[in-house]
């Protein structure tokens, strides 16, 4: 695995200058590559596109799942949630499996949309690139998400991780645009459409749940009145 040699010149440059020296001390090469991908999505993909196969991508996603589990485990411990700690134990197996499955399914959705808009790239190339930037966002946000378990201030610290995740949508846009050779508008639509659909589904489910709870409340009130 290789890392992009280019340096950031925008507002992320100071962040990269702080992060990458620390990353160089991490013994896991994949983490270094992920972080490089977060700052230089297409450049890092180009340097690693030889790994555009199901096995390599699955390894990346599984390791991201392990990192996510470790972060969640630390957050639970810092929150003194020892009941949750017991629940987290099987997560060492469950998290990687979920990450691999979700990673491929999510990439399928974006790939189909990209093809509808005339995308020219391959599925495994796209999936590898997306895995690299998602790993970068996960690794960069790891300290903040781990500290989110702290009482009182944890929620505030977690906001940094949220900002990192939100910025990664821009990285996804760059990946879709670059790999599929799409226009800026079409690449943006590939990213935005699933978000809009997810929001609509969430609103509909929330509304349906509210109606069900209201109906249950009215039924309970009616049953109570019938008891007199």
Mean pLDDT across every amino acid position? 91
Summed up, the helix count is 9
Number of domains: 1
- Helices and strands, in order, run as HHHHHHHHH
Number of strands: 0
Structural class label: mainly alpha
Distance between the termini: 74 Å
Whole-angstrom Rg: 21 Å
Task: Please give the share of residues in helix.
Answer: over 70%
Describe this structure in words.
The chain has about 230 residues and is an all-alpha fold. It has one domain (about 15-185). Helix content is about 80%, strand content about 0%. It has nine helices and no strands. The protein has helices at about 15-25, 30-40, 40-50, 55-80, 80-90, 90-115, 125-145, 155-180, 185-225. Helix 2 (about 30-40) crosses helix 7. It is globular. The model has no long low-confidence stretch (mean pLDDT about 90).
